[in-house]
Every structure is written in structure tokens, then in C-alpha cells.
TrEMBL record:
SMART domains: HTH_GNTR (SM00345). SUPFAM superfamilies: Winged helix' DNA-binding domain. GO terms for molecular function: DNA binding; DNA-binding transcription factor activity. Coiled coil: none annotated. Keywords: DNA-binding, Transcription, Transcription regulation. The lineage of its organism: Bacteria, Bacillati, Actinomycetota, Actinomycetes, Mycobacteriales. It comes from the Bacteria. This is GntR family transcriptional regulator.
Length: 117
């Protein structure tokens, strides 16, 4: 997997894994139906506790990006947005926009950044 972790980062490892896999999906490096490396494989690759990887995978399931079927493994699932996911995205964006506005960014600056991304 094209994932890199920074053990010295203040961001927890499980969150780095979750963000990294989310980015790989968003960039098209991981596609719908593609199997993720097993929890044990990822843990061994990075020399970390399997529970850390499992926590990241569980969050990806909650985010609606991955399905996990026991011993069958975890598979990328895209394109099945739910109303709950839409509302969560709306809440997340609202929080980010409020923080940006509090930092002095204008609506047009925020919109420009969104278009760039």
C-alpha cells in the first residue's frame, strides 16, 4: 500500500492510516471493490499494534468508504452515499468554514481553495 506514517507526528497513527487511505481512494489509487491489505499485514509493515490498524479500518467503515467482512477482509466501497454521510460531510465542512472565517479568510478565498483541491 502507498501509505506513509510519521511516528513523531502529534496525529495518532490510526488517524494517519485513516487519512492516508481516504486520500488514496480520493486520488483513485484505491478503487471500488479493491481489497485493502489485511490488518496484520499493515501492522507488520509499519511495526505497530494491529489494534491501531483495526481502529483506522473501523473508522473507514463508519465513514462509508470500506466494507469489512470478517476473515474475507476489507474492501473499498465508493458511490453509495447515504443521507447520514451527506449530513456528516455538511457538518464537517461547516466546522472547517467557520474556522477559516474565524481566521480571517473570505468566502471567495475559501471557495478558491475548494476549487483548487
Amino acid at each position: 500500500m502507498l501509505l506513509t506514517l510519521s511516528p513523531d507526528s502529534p496525529e495518532p497513527l490510526y488517524e494517519q492510516i485513516r487519512r492516508g487511505i481516504t486520500a488514496l481512494i480520493a486520488q483513485g489509487h484505491l478503487r471500488d471493490g479493491q481489497r485493502l491489505d489485511s490488518v496484520r499485514q499493515v501492522a507488520a509493515e509499519f511495526g505497530i499494534n494491529p489494534a491501531t490498524v483495526k481502529k483506522a479500518y473501523d473508522q473507514l467503515v463508519r465513514d462509508g468508504l470500506v466494507e469489512t467482512a470478517g476473515r474475507s477482509g476489507s474492501v473499498v466501497r465508493q458511490g453509495t452515499r447515504t443521507a447520514q454521510q451527506r449530513e456528516q460531510l455538511r457538518a464537517d465542512l461547516q466546522e472547517l468554514i467557520q474556522r477559516a472565517r474565524a481566521q480571517g479568510f473570505t468566502t471567495s478565498e475559501i471557495a478558491k481553495l475548494i476549487k483548487e483541491l
